[in-house]
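User: tokens in, sequence out, please.
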């Protein structure tokens, strides 16, 4: 997360996945139990960390300095209820 904050100071935004085993990964996020099609987030210093669980055995952690808050996109709301950080990551990868 330090690198993301440094890049944000240089006015460069980023969005990408982050591994849960990193030292900087918040322990409050590591220990949460999640349900299918659920997400939660943590906002710290201009970085938005979104953890989305689409299946019982798979979850994705996305770090973004481009987004301020997670929102569910209206066109995706009926289909899969994905947050905007996940949709933007999938479109730009």
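Assistant: Sequence out:
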């Amino acid at each position: 997360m330090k690198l993301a904050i440094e890049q944000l100071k240089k006015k460069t935004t980023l969005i990408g996945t982050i591994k849960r085993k990193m030292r900087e990964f918040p322990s409050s996020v590591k220990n949460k139990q999640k349900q299918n099609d659920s997400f939660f987030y943590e906002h710290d210093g201009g970085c938005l960390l979104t953890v989305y669980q689409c299946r019982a055995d798979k979850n994705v952690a996305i770090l973004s300095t481009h987004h301020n808050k997670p929102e569910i996109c209206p066109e995706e709301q009926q289909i899969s209820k994905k947050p905007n950080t996940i949709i933007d990551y999938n479109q730009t990868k």
